Amino acid sequence: MSRIAYVNGQYVPHAEAHIHIEDRGYQFADGVYEVAAVWRGRIIDEDGHLTRLKRSLDELHMTMPMADRPFAMVCRETLRQNRVRDGIIYIQISRGVSRRDHPFPENVERALVMTARAVDWPTDADDDSGAHVVSVADIRWLRRDVKSISLLPNVLAKQEARDKGAYEAWLVDEDGFVTEGSSTNAWIVDGDGKIVTRQLDNNILGGITRSTVIALARENGLEVVERPFSLAEALGAPEALLTSTTSFVRGIIDIDGNQIGDGTPGPVSRRLRGLYLDYCRGAGSNQ
Ligand code: PMP
Does the pLDDT value for residue 181 go beyond 80? Predict the structure, then answer.
């Protein structure tokens, strides 16, 4: 079946979907995006993704290109036209097309693009083989809380991970603390058995999966502490794990070749993965 993309008000064949060369997303990475998982036809944490999208836009002094109801309808129509019941929806909004010049152009329509594709989601908490991770320096800008399409440092980090046979790169700041992964949030279980993930501020993206997993953990009596942790602490931790919209929850089995725990996803990682999969099966949104 041929894929369909939504581009500025029209549903067009994916292969023919184009944006102008003077779109500011292309010229300046002047735009934001979202990726949401679709599970049995339902957009997981739709409200959370919409809230983050609006916040990212606001930080770039932009607004939504349309009201919430038509926006939700375009999301559903894009999924429908692509016959995606399990998969992802990708949404990108840029400042639009204008003669190349740094200041914001006036009276320019924002460009809205959506695509969807099918993904076979995991269904079993125990089918996680565990992820290899490598550490790289975090060389990004200081507004990592904005889900900007400017992803070059993330792309370079992910490629370094792939070149070294790893699934993810953990980004490490100047003081030796892990900020997050190149496209995932970073977690450990510390020596006291507490689940640790870095607190929300400008240094990391506030992952939607992160906030759902924190809520699920706490609802189920597990203690979560939001604080920085160093790479050294992670290397000695009983467990390490990662979360994202497309990775869900995955255990980490080694970092830079150092085995974590017994070299398989640990019990807390598996528990959180199970809770998250149950959440996807049942709820669509906890917002
Ligand atoms: N950090 C970064 C840098 C990311 O790109 C992502 C994926 N968007 C995440 C964390 C995880 O966020 P989410 O759970 O919303 O997918």
Answer: yes
